[in-house]
What we know:
Low-confidence stretches: 543-563, 565-655, 657-661, 686-698, 700-709
Structural class: alpha+beta
Organism: Nothobranchius kadleci (African annual killifish)
Distance between the termini: 129 Å
CATH architecture of the domain at 358-527: Roll
Mean pLDDT: 81
Keywords: Cell adhesion, Disulfide bond, Extracellular matrix, Gamma-carboxyglutamic acid, Repeat, Secreted, Signal
GO molecular function: cell adhesion molecule binding
CATH topology of the domain at 358-527: FAS1 domain
CATH superfamily of the domain at 358-527: FAS1 domain
Number of helices: 19
Radius of gyration: 53 Å
CATH class of the domain at 358-527: Mainly Beta
Subcellular location: Secreted, Extracellular space, Extracellular matrix
Strand content: 15-25%
Strand order of the largest sheet: 2-1-7-6-5-4-3
Domain FAS1: 1-112, 116-247, 254-351, 355-487
Amino acid sequence: MSKLRAEIEGEGSFTLFAPSNDAWEELDPTLRSGLESNVNIELKNSLHYHMVNHRLMTKDMKNDMTVTSMYNNLGIYINHYPNGVLTVNCARLIHANQVATNGVVHVIDRVISSVGNTIRDFLENTDDLSSFADAALAAEVMDKLGKPGHYTLFAPTNSAFDKLKPGFMESITENQEVIKALVNNHLLNSVQCAEAIMAGTVYETAEGSTIEIGCDGDSLTVNGIKMVLKKDIVTSNGVVHLIDRVIMPDSAKEVLGSKTEYTLLAPLNAAFTEEVMSQDETLLKLILENHMLKTKITLNELYSGQMLETLSGKMLRVFIYRTAVCIENACMVRGSKEGSNGALHLMRSLIQPADKTMFELLVDDGRFKVFLSLMETAGLDELLKQKGSYTVFAPTDDAFEALTKKDIALLKGDLNALRTILLYHFSDWILINGGLERGVTNLLTSLQGNNLQVKSVNNSIYINSVEVPEGDRMATNGVVHVVKNVLYPAELPVGRQDLLAVLTKLIKYIQIKFVSGYSYVEIPLSFFKKTITTTIVEVPQSTKMIRVVEQPSVTTFTKIVEGQPTITKVTEVIETEPSVSRVVVAGESTRTKVTRVIEGQPSPKKVTRVIDRKPTITKVTRVISGASTDGEREMSTETGVSKSTVIEPQIIKGPDFSKFTNFRDNPALVNEESERITKLIQAGRGGFAAANRVPAGMRRARLVRRHHKPTE
């Protein structure tokens, strides 16, 4: 019909993917009618799309391979699956490698159509997929679906989203991680044509979780649910299957249907026995609350020794073993899941929160009177009470029933022997049945020092081959396993015949060795915890008044000379060499201080000349350095060549006071010298004033200080 016969009978080397008669019969009638109504163009182009311009055998066909067709050089997409199935554009090769003189023919089970669109193009151009397209855009996955690749998309239709709880999509769209997880949970990073899928095959999604693809007649199932509406929509970067349900990832599921974050520790059905279910409503509610945590904790966030708070306020301990993760007495099974507002962990049994110490458990039980009595005699009963993480294999009173009172007294009479036996029943590590690897013998170091051999068989614990009838009784400071035999290290001998006779009555599962003269060593009780109690007593703060009396080192005498008070300060420096003092007078009124330094080594002093308009306090200072600086000092101004001469103050030599230690030794001398110095100052006032005045037309010269390094 398409006039193609001449071409395929002529010379050349072709590959023809030829649809079978059944394939043409199954072709959509509208599509077939369209081809046959335009045989010279549409039909011929369609047939050319089934042809490759070279020979291609099945051995040459690789998975995810693209070959160029003879129609507009469009690609044909080949997949070669591990199970041997070969497809071209998801059409299965049912009769391959039919070699001809001018090529090869492969019979396929459907008519294939030319492909030019990507998965993104298909989503954007299909109205019934608008909800998923919006989700893919919000999740920033749409760009990926428009690029070259090899993908399988299970695309939910709009009706699939309509089945979700109202407002659900709006609530998760605001959470970028959740919406991205939802979209990626529908995407595989490989091309999976329907004809190649084997029932029960599990695939990993781009989100990281897994989905199981199966078959139900001619239909595909996802996670056991028949949901595929249309399959094998081929695009240039993969294949699309339309589904009528949303495949919800764990991270998008809600825990308890609440926005509050929780963690559910959910026991399997087998944990809810008739005895449990027969409890009253209050107790059942408490059991459930003990399996719910107040916050979201994923499996990766759990660590050994971690404390978890339940809704009921109980604290649960986490134990991490080599092959198990346990919370109190219950261990997890595989299948932990994370939801949008919580996490779910599956537990093998009901969790038993601890609320009593090991000592309280044994006392309340009533079957451990002999064991507790021996612990008290050995001074070890505190071990059952103190904080810690211990495992005790506690023998019941039945284990001691063969002993007489005399035998028990003999045991209590040898403290080292008694402690050796008792501490062999303890370990400073919490070991529960679920934490043991099945069928493997575990060595557990006892507080006595020798190892205990622990093994789990048929969900029962065996300790040194002795069965533990009751285990995993959780205490706040450890776990109690009930035994009906007294345990003893097989490698440890006994050195006394009377003690051997008692132990032989007690211990039946081993033959105890006798070594004459052997004595038990004293075991350091380093496992006892020292408790230091610190009492803080708050005492009101008191304010203390302290009076500090200091003896002044400078004595000041003041003498009024005339109308305006003049303060004269006399300074006495106690030295062996004569002191040179200077009196610098400036300004109008003058206050002169006379100060005597009574004690201490004299500090190096500098001569400071003060020139100021304001009244000046005159200082009398001793210069320790060599010669005096009598005479005139010239001070130049910065303007012109003018020079201002300042007359140095007079130097008044006082008497040598080195012979006196205090003015009080000669009061008369104080008055005499004060009067003499005052007269000299008054007599020289005119000269000082003239020296202080600045000649007309000149600025006052800036004070120049000459610093001399003092002689020490």
